Amino acid sequence: MNAPVDPKKLIKGGLHDWEVIVGMEIHAQVSSRAKLFSGASTEFGGEPNDHVSLVDAAMPGMLPVINAECVAQAVRTGLGLKAKINLRSVFDRKNYFYPDLPQGYQISQYKDPIVGEGEVLVDLPDGASITVGIERLHLEQDAGKSLHDQDPTRSFVDLNRSGVALMEIVSRPDLRSSEEAKAYVTKLRTILRYLGTCDGDMEKGSLRADVNVSVRRPGEPLGTRCEIKNVNSIRFIGQAIETEARRQIAILEDGGKIDQETRLFDPTKGETRSMRSKEEAHDYRYFPDPDLLPLEFDQAYVDALAEGLPELPDAKKARFVSAFGLSPYDAGVLVAERASADYYEAVAKGRDGKAAANWVINELFGRLNKEGLSIESTPVSADQLGAIIDLIGEGVISGKIAKDLFEIVWTEGGDPRAIVESRGMKQVTDTGAIEAAVDQIIAANPDKVAQAKEKPTLLGWFVGQTMKATGGKANPAAVNALLKAKLGID
Amino acid sequence: MSVDEKTVRRIAHLARIAVTDDEVGPLQGELNAILAFVEQLGTVDVTGVEPMTSVTPMAMKKREDVVTEGGRAADVVANAPETEDNYFLVPKVVE
Question: What is d(CA A61, CA A327) in angstroms, rounded to the nearest whole number?
Fold first, then answer.
C-alpha cells in the first residue's frame, strides 16, 4: 500500500500534488440459468414479475434452496483470481428496507465469505503492470428493479432480477489513478468472461462497480474515503474517480475536511453528489441466516473445478509471446477477448505468428472497429484470412494486393484463392513483363534516371511508378532488384 | 448488556416499527429483561463445545441449475395494494 509514488500519477491541486487512492467493490452477475436460491429464470428482461418464484417475492413460509451451479461459479472465479477458497462459508442476512427488496433483507455473506484473498495482474496502457490485491469474493442476492419515470407519484417495482446471484469482488485500495482503476475493471471483466462465470455485459448491469475514493499528500496516512455507488461503465468509472478526487482536493486545500459518505456519479452533469438517504441504512444488523446451513465442500470438489478451468488470459498471453514470437503488447491485444484469441490461433496455426498477428490486429480489428462489429460477427473467417496470408507467403499476391483482396472477401465473401484466380490479381513474377515496364519508365524519365545516380532514395519513386504501371501486381522484390541493377544503385 | 431509551427508538426505527413515547419506557424494560436471560446463558462453560448450526448434523441441500418456477406474475402481485401491468406500485422512492 505504500509503494513508491509515481509522480506522473499525482493530481495537481492549487497548492499541492495529491495522490488518489482507489479501491473497488465489483458486483458481477453469476452466469447461471436459475437464481441463487430459487428455480426462477435469470434471463434478462422478460415481462414484469414473470421470472419470479414465491421465494423471490418473499411470500411467508417460502424457504431458500441454494443453486449448486452458482456455488461452482463462485469457486471457479476464486480460482481465476488465484484466491484462497474457503471450504466453509456462511450466509448472513443484511437487513434494510427498500421497495425492491421484498424480504427486508439481502442474503449475503459477511464474516465468512466463500473466497478469501487473491490477486489480479493488471497491464497498464504504458506497458507497465501492477498487482491488485483481492480482499474477498462473496455470493449474494441481487435486488429487484424500480422504475421511477412511469408515474408522477408512484414507483413501479419488478422483481425479475430479485434473487439473481451476484459475486461481490472486493479489491484492496491498491489503485492509484483512474487509468489503473479502468485497467483493473477491464482485466477483471476479461478474466470473468474467460471463466464463463459472468458475461460482463455492463449495459445490462451484469457488472457494476462501487468505487471508494480518497486523496492524500504523498507519504501521508490514508484520507477519509467516499463511496461512489453503482457506476455502470468503465468510462464512467474513470470520470467518477477524476471528478471525486478533484472535489476532495478542493475541499482539503480550502482547509475543510471530507465527510465519509455514499455518493452518486451523474455523468451528464459531470459531478458526484451525496446520497444522504443511504447513510443511516449502514446499520445492517447482519446475522447468520437461520434458513440456510453453512456452505461446505471438500478440497476434491475445488480440485475438480480447477481441472476444468480454461487457459486464462495471463497464461495465454505468455504462450502467445513464447510460441508465436509476439510482442507482449500485441499478445495482450489478442487475449483481451477469448473469441479474439481463438480467432488468432486459428489463423496462426501452421503460419507465421507475427504475420498473422499483424493481419488480425491491424486489418481485421481495425475494420471491425470501424464498422462497430465484434469478432463474433466478422465477415472474414479465420480460414479466409489464413488463405490470404498463405497467398502472400507463396508469392502469389503482393501485400498491397492482399489488402484489396481482404476488402473483396470482407464485402463479397468467397474463397480468396479462387478470387485471385478469377480476377487476375496474381502477382507478376515474370521478370520479362516487369522488365518491360521498368524499361518504359526509365526511357520516359531520363532526368530522374540521371538524378538517381546521385540520390539513391529516388529508387522509391521508380518502384512506385512500376507498381502503378503493373496495376500493383508486380512482385516488389523483383522490381527492386531490377531497378537497382538498371539504375546502377547498390 | 442493556439498552437505553435512545437505542430502543433507534432499533424500532430501523425495523420500521412505530413506537410512541409512552411505549419506549416499558419496551426498554422488556428488552433488558430478555438481555438478562441471554446473559445467564453466558455463564455456562462451553469450553471445547463446537458451535451448533443444526439440530441434526447434515449438509446443506442444493438445487440443480434448472428453471422450474416463474410465469405466475398475477399470483406474485395478487396481494399488493396497488398494481399495474403486473408491476407492484409503491409511493415514489427516488434518489
Answer: 60
